[in-house]
Structure formats: C-alpha cells, structure tokens
User: What shape does this take?
Amino acid sequence: TLFRSDILVIENGTAFPFQVEILDEAGNITAQPKLIVICKFLGAQNLPVYTVDCSNTGTGILTGPVFHVKNIKKDQMLKAKIEVPSCKEIPVVEKTIKLLPSSHVAKLHILSVDGQKAIQIKHQDDVNWIAGDVMQNLIFQLYDEGARSEE
Assistant: This one.
C-alpha cells in the first residue's frame, strides 16, 4: 500500500514528498535488501524522477526535484507510476496528479496613463522622460502563471 488518496494536487514549481511503506501479505512493514522505490511522472516533458531506499526500514519519503512544467496556464493532469523494480511481485501503483499553475508572480505589465487612456509599455519600448523627473501615472499589473491577477 503506497497511497490512500485518489488524486494528488500539487503546484507547479514545488516538490511533492510521498510517504511510502513496503508491506508484506499480512500488512506489516517489511524490510529487505534492494527495496528501492522509484516514481516516474508521465504527462509532460522534463518531469523529475523520485527515488527512496526502503531497504533498512521498509518506509521512506519518496521525493526529488521540483516540478517545473513550462507555459502551464491551467490545471494539467499527470500520472505517477510508482514501482519497486527489484521486486516484481509488488504491483505497480499509478496515481493521478493534478498540477496547478504556480501562484507566484510570473508576469508584470506596466501601463502608462495618459489622460483617460492606459497604454502598455512593452519589453524594449523606449520611454521618453526628462532626466531627474519623477515617473508618474504608471500602473503595475502582476499576474501568476495561470494569468490570474495578483493583488
């Protein structure tokens, strides 16, 4: 038995630790040599692989590098395939993971207000201003990875 929940939810840009236990047929935690648990993630490019050695205790925290899926704008479903390659009698466990866009700021829009009009200043645009003057009438809009406005 590796998990109890059906769908695991994580945010892009974070690691997700799993508590794993190797159980015998009676449901007791068991330890033996070469109990390496591997988790491979499927459903996007460049996903990490998590591993943990349960040889000594029969338990461990399955973790690894952070998830970082580029250009994620909405929730994305992934599969986690957890196995113990040295013990073919232990069935592979598959879990569904809902990967959420990061809530950290990912985009900044700067707008210049001229009268009733707000014009976005784009990357490498020239901004003409008198040196030494205070820049004013600017609006800063922050957005997270899911294009949600940050307050």
Observations:
- The longest strand covers residues 105-114.
- The mean pLDDT is 85.
